[in-house]
């Protein structure tokens, strides 16, 4: 059973199925975020449905590119024999 | 009926017989002690034990309250899991070191005074360093020496702080440091922050953990940083500085994790990131925040160990550790993949996994305390956590390009240990009640609200979308990253340069002088001396020469490079230092 599930995520054969499932989940989450009741709201963004999706995506992109910028242009990444 | 069994003693004294046991008996024994310790911890009643006078100071070997019990419980659980994971090892050294390490961590958690705390603190440093030394090979030995030096330095700072603080406050008892923080308290704080791997004092962790043995790294991931979180929660709750340090380190860890190619170093940067939540929680200092920090430490120890066990299994089986050299293992190691992913979901705080019910407490506490910026930064760090441990690492390690590696599932005991940790990660996520009941303050927090679930899923799954879209940008590169260890690694080199160039030149100048002026003089006197010499001093000279030769032999033996000799010398030095300290104190 476990092997089947793991294969589902690895095998090329399931790639299309995987993508469809993934995008379906994304849509469902955003829809759910619109309908879910919000009892206690303190901050502005907590009022905006779909905010978390936008924030998650922006965070991810920011983290990737800011880090890679620091690594390449900021000189944090060095050859493996840097300390030798 | 014995009123109180100190769990630390069970481990430390329990380490003694390990080398004398063989085969199945040793295995049973290795599991028996953690089980007994767990029972001892569960049977603990809050109170003070082992109060005594030492050098005219009050010491308290064990102070048991709810905060210490939470940490002791998870420490002993992890000791058991870690022992199962390490059960296949044949040499006793690592088991002994792990026992002493766990025992020392428990000693810190129950320490009622600073002297007891300090002794166990140093015990932890030495025992854990052995787990890096045991890996062998030049890289690991060098990393282990750096690790030891950083921790010994941190220990000295801590000791200095303790002495100053005790002189100022007149008491060695360990408790919340309130009011004006003096120089002593700042030194204590610095010592604690070093062990919590708070940047810029974080590099020892990411330097040494990936060099440790496969089994040793599992223990290391759990104890040193979390005892530091415990002592911070005990002594410095509500310290504003910690909020910002914690938030910064949560992001610091994920930024470095993007750049990392070594699988266990990537996970180590996530320890830094996750401990950031705890440090921030301690800094916020409200009941909800301290509960959050404590419960997050509990959950973190289990899922982080699980992640280290998963990555360790891959290293154990393939002998490779770089993401650029791994890939396609899902075919041969499906169980490892599944168990690793449970840890990854737990650290990413997916609903129904442990991180969800603990991390959200810290974030909610930041929100309740009107710290919008902290809240947003910590949420951003959660996105990064899933990006690396949940997506990047498993993708490049288990899926991605198939490198055609010969692989198989790791030994049964390793899988069993991972299954134990995974079970707990899921159980805590689904039934947070028992964990909440353990926490130091009453819990009035419901993690499973509709809005919270959709919010978390939104952040996580759209992080996954970013990962899918920008996968190419994340491809691991064959590099290492410069962290704050640059200062002492390059600094040591500068020092050596100074020793070899200017100092050596000075020495040469001196010897030149001696050759041109002093030597003729010496020749003259030597000729005079020769006569005396021939008439009887020969015998004395021969004697001295023999003595020097023997001395050289002893020195040579001391300089074997055998780590245990150095470790022994250091322990002897530590005892001597304590003796001197004790005398001076009087």
Automatic annotation (TrEMBL), chain A:
This is Uncharacterized protein. It comes from Sinorhizobium americanum. It comes from the Bacteria.
UniProtKB/TrEMBL annotation, chain B:
GO terms for cellular component: plasma membrane. InterPro entries: ComplexI-like_HydComp, ND/Mrp_TM. It is an enzyme of class 1 (oxidoreductase). Pfam families: Proton_antipo_M. Its EC number is 1.6.5.3. It is a multi-pass membrane protein. Keywords: Cell membrane, Membrane, Oxidoreductase, Transmembrane, Transmembrane helix. Coiled coil: none annotated. GO terms for molecular function: oxidoreductase activity. Residues 111-380 form the NADH:quinone oxidoreductase/Mrp antiporter transmembrane domain. It is found in: Cell membrane; Membrane. This is Monovalent cation/H+ antiporter subunit D. The gene is nuoM.
